[in-house]
Design goal:
The complex is a heterodimer. By secondary structure, chain A is mostly helical. Helices cover 81% and strands 0% of the residues of chain A. Chain A contains nine helices and no strands. Among the domains of chain B are: 21-70; 87-122, no CATH class. A two-stranded antiparallel ribbon of chain B has the order 1-2. The chains are: A mainly alpha, B mainly alpha.
Chain lengths: 165, 123
């Protein structure tokens, strides 16, 4: 892993290909659960690896996975902001409808609907904890939040889902 | 385990497109190109800004200022010293000799004399 990291810092294309092979599915699954749309999730996953390539030189942490997830989380959050703005401007009503239809056709619709109902501040730490098995400390580092806050957010998220199911 | 936890853990996203990696590389290529353009523009703007700031500081005058300044300079008058006699110079070893002869002066004097003569005849 250290070798891949070192090569990635030198912008070695093979290293990025290797990293993509290792993490693309996990990151895509994670982002898909956050944004609830496969097409957008794939775009964001691609953008995540583009950022990995350009920002690897300044990478200080040794935990590559956490760092990649931090990038993906930031991109997903900007997507939430864009979606909110679009909703506010009433520009993408047709787009939202299409996404909803596509989601209905996929497996795991219920999960997506449940997560879509869950506020974003609970959704991100909950998915990290329950799907990607990050520790509370790792989530706290990725989200730049205190560990206590993360525990509380995950607990409230679980509580929300329990009441819904 | 609660039902929602089973559902979350069992959730598998749709498949990624086959050319996922190629798309990433295309995006990287586009971004590199954009970065080069942005960097070039930034350098050009920086150079222009530095030039605009430094020219007045270094005191290089503008075209208008240059005209004003040159108008203030005293005009030098060329002084003509007529050669009335032929002059000879020679190097110490006598091998090279320089001569200045009053060719133009002679011609001018002859012309003026001729003019004076014709005027006198007319009277």
């Amino acid at each position: 892993m250290d070798d891949v990291l070192a090569r990635l810092k030198r912008k070695d294309p093979e290293a990025l290909t290797e990293v993509m092979r290792m993490y693309k599915r996990q990151v895509f699954n994670y982002v898909h659960l956050l944004v609830g749309n496969a097409e957008v999730a794939e775009e964001l996953t691609q953008d995540t690896f583009v950022r990995v390539y350009f920002k690897a030189a300044g990478l200080r942490t040794e935990n590559l996975k956490s760092w990649i997830y931090a990038i993906a989380t930031n991109l997903a959050r900007s997507e939430f902001r864009k979606q909110k703005l679009r909703k506010w401007l009433h520009l993408s009503e047709a787009g939202v409808e299409a996404v909803a239809c596509a989601s209905r056709a996929e497996d795991g619709v219920l999960v997506e609907q449940l997560l879509a109902a869950l506020p974003e501040k609970y959704r991100t730490p909950l998915v990290m904890k329950e799907v990607d098995n990050f520790s509370f400390e790792e989530i706290a580092r990725i989200l730049h939040k205190p560990v206590g806050t993360v525990k509380s957010l995950v607990f409230r998220g679980k509580d929300f889902l329990k009441n819904r199911v | 385990m609660a039902d929602w936890q089973d559902m979350l853990a069992g959730h598998r996203a749709a498949d990624l497109s086959d050319d996922f990696e190629q798309r990433v590389w295309r995006k990287i290529g586009r971004r590199k190109k954009r970065r080069t353009i942005v960097a070039g523009t930034a350098v050009a703007v920086a150079v222009a800004t530095v030039a605009v700031v430094l020219i007045p500081l270094l005191g290089l005058p503008s075209r208008g200022q240059r005209d004003t300044l040159s108008a203030r300079l005293p005009q030098t008058v060329k002084q003509e010293i007529p050669v009335s006699d032929n002059l000879y110079f020679a190097t110490q070893d006598g091998r090279t000799v320089y001569t200045i002869e009053r060719v133009a002066f002679q011609n001018a004097a002859a012309d003026s004399e001729a003019d004076n003569g014709s005027q006198n005849h007319g009277i």
